[in-house]
User: Which sequence fits this backbone?
């Protein structure tokens, strides 16, 4: 990590960039926070380890409006989000200096908690070139877990170790995929409609409408969300199960369909552990099947199937089925 | 002191639920939250922290205050002389207002931790002082709190900083204090309401030694001293610190990663801000209130447009409210150190980091002198 800090420090000192968007050491061994470093000296608090799961792409919307370039640390999967934001004209490529940082998967502290690890004092083995197991020193005794058992759900379907966009690279990446990307979706598709509805009702009734999923989502970059507009009944500030279960998350999934890169931030931040990515991934699978494979954010020039029209387009949906029948 | 074996705990729940609603930590789709007890629910008494605090029991996230229905009064035939237009204008409507009934049945909140009980004290300050909130007051009168000691506190806990005792819930403003030790639930009534509840389930409880929980109490007390955040200092916060803290430059740095979501607000046991809105039903209006978050862009937005317009202002408001304004007005902090925001903030910001950031500022300022 020192090499990365030295490089960022040099970029700041020689004026290539005016600031660095990275992660700052937390007050616990597992809670670093996104941070804008303005001086080389302040980089002493910079950290990059397994707990730096936050996707910094969306913060570049504001950062790229600032004077001078911003160096931003992007993991391979974050680079898809950044590309997509370029595609949507939400970030200015010229104002970004992208450090493609290596990644061997990011960690979910809740996986440790679910494994009975608590009272954590120290964690070691989370650095990029660290070992295959993570050690926890806790007030209830020492514990160990394998790095892969601690991975965020999204890392098990890793999109690969390549950065889609960068100015320079730092560190080795590893493809951490150990299951098929659409397995979870296929399991849902295999359910009967009633079972599927029950599954989503159970999950979504936990929703507390904190909007963390929306606010963290790089594809949710509307300057004013319809759900925040108090001039309309659409605001829906009230948390009532019927709305969260049947409307909010589905509307959001439709809104980001074709633009969602499957970065998995929605599921990472949900305080209630709702697997929100399942909606988006179902749409991705459908788009792949109906229009041919498409990965949002892979190429900033590529036209999304849902914003493109060709005479060859399929006509999915109940209307088409009816007219064919 | 009484006791009941955990193997038998369902019979205790069933006995309580026979005459009262029973609200307790229940696991659903992997997460523990307070919910009504049912025979087939998965009770999670071993969950240290539910995702949401139990404040819903007294101040639900959403509630209807009243309903308004428009009733068309049939026009009197004798008035129907003249043109049809006249008849139409004579169609009279009447508004019928139906207020939601106040809570009138006793209910039990089982398994509340001392920090969450302290959270209710903060809510009392707001809702039970003039103007009294009748909906809340009725729930407080009918609610019976069975508090439970925190068997193995975690690193995000720092309730002792705010004078909470997680080891001995009999010191909390609860009705019954309980401890779980070696498969037994120990039970001690600490208020009149608690005595009555004890009587109603007495046949299921057996006698236990008065000192049965002592070892557990000293064990928890000892663990708390080892947790990093319990050493937090509140020096510089509290009454009369508005100017000093409000104008600090620290906020301009601290707020930056904040997503402006409502996670911290909605998991917090003391956040009590709400919004009141009208919902148009087909032939009337439903007036409801729901939790609001000072992190939201439309929080306290009024016609004058004088609300907080930037995230730094909103972020500062939340912590100033908890650590300065609330003590100014009510003589207590409105943080109880439950650590839910520490666990749940998507960007790893929280009240502990705020307090520490100001400590560091002081140290750095000192070093520069």
Assistant:
């Amino acid at each position: 990590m020192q090499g990365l800090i030295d490089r960022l420090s040099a970029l700041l000192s020689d004026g290539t960039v005016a600031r660095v968007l990275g992660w700052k050491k937390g007050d616990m061994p597992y809670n670093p926070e996104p941070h804008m470093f303005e001086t080389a000296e302040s980089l002493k608090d910079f950290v990059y380890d397994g707990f730096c799961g936050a996707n910094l792409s969306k913060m570049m919307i504001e950062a790229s409006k600032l004077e001078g370039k911003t160096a931003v640390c992007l993991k391979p999967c974050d680079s898809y989000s950044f590309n997509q934001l370029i595609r949507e004209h939400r970030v200015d490529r010229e104002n970004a200096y992208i450090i493609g940082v290596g990644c061997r998967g990011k960690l979910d502290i809740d996986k440790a908690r679910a494994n009975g690890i608590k009272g954590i004092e120290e964690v070691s083995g989370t650095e990029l070139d660290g070992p295959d197991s993570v050690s926890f020193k806790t007030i209830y005794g020492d514990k160990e877990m394998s790095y892969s058992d601690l991975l965020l759900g999204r890392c098990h379907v890793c999109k690969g170790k390549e950065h889609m966009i960068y100015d320079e690279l730092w560190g080795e990446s590893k493809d951490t995929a150990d299951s098929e990307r659409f397995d979870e979706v296929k399991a849902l598709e295999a359910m009967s409609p009633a079972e599927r509805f029950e599954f989503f009702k159970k999950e979504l009734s936990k929703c507390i409408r904190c909007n963390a999923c929306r606010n963290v989502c790089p594809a949710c970059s509307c300057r004013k969300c319809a759900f925040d507009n108090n001039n309309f009944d659409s605001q829906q500030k009230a948390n009532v199960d019927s709305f969260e279960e049947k409307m909010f998350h589905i509307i959001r999934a439709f809104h980001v369909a074709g633009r969602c890169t499957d970065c998995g931030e929605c599921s990472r931040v949900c305080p209630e552990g709702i697997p929100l990515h399942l909606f988006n991934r179902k749409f991705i699978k459908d788009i792949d099947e109906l229009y041919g494979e498409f990965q949002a954010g892979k190429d900033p020039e590529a036209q999304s199937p849902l914003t493109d029209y060709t005479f060859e387009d399929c006509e999915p949906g109940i209307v088409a089925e009816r007219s064919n029948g | 002191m009484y006791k009941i074996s955990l193997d038998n705990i369902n019979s205790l729940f069933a006995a309580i639920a026979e005459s009262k609603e029973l609200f307790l930590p229940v696991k659903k789709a992997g997460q523990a939250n307070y919910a009504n007890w049912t025979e087939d629910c998965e009770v999670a008494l071993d969950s240290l922290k539910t995702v949401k605090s139990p404040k819903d029991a007294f101040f639900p996230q959403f509630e209807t205050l009243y309903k308004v229905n428009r009733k068309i009064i049939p026009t009197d035939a004798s008035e129907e002389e003249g043109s049809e237009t006249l008849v139409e204008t004579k169609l009279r409507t009447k508004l019928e207002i139906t207020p939601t009934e106040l809570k009138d049945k006793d209910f039990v909140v089982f398994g509340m931790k001392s920090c969450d009980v302290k959270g209710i004290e903060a809510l009392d300050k707001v809702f039970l002082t003039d103007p009294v909130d009748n909906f809340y007051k009725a729930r407080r009168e009918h609610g019976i709190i069975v508090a439970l000691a925190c068997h193995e506190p975690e690193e995000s806990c720092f309730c002792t900083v705010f004078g909470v005792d997680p080891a001995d819930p009999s010191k909390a403003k609860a009705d019954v204090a309980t401890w779980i030790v070696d498969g037994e639930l120990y039970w001690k009534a600490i208020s009149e309401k608690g005595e009555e509840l004890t009587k109603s389930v007495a046949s299921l409880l057996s006698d236990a030694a008065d000192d049965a929980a002592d070892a557990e109490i000293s064990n928890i007390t000892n663990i708390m001293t080892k947790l990093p955040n319990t050493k937090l200092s509140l020096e510089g916060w509290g009454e009369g610190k508005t100017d000093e803290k409000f104008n600090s430059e620290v906020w301009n740095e601290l707020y930056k990663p904040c997503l402006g979501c409502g996670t911290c607000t909605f998991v917090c046991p003391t956040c009590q801000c709400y919004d009141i809105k009208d919902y148009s039903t087909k032939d009337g209006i439903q007036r409801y209130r729901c939790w609001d978050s000072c992190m939201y862009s439309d929080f306290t937005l009024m016609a004058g447009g004088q609300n907080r317009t930037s995230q730094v202002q909103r972020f500062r408001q939340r912590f100033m409210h908890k650590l300065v304004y609330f003590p100014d007005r009510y003589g207590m902090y409105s943080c109880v150190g439950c650590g839910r925001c520490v666990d749940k903030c998507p960007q790893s910001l929280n009240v502990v980091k705020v307090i520490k950031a100001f400590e560091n500022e002081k140290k750095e300022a000192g070093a520069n002198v």
User: Anything to note?
Assistant: Chain A is about 30% helix and 15% strand. Chain A has a mean pLDDT of 93. The first strand of chain A starts at residue 19 and ends at 24. The interface with chain B takes residues 26-28, 31-36, 54, 59, 118-121, 138-140, 202-203, 205-206, 208-212, 214-216, 224, 228, 230, 233, 235, 237-240, 268-269, 271-274 of chain A (CB under 8 Å).
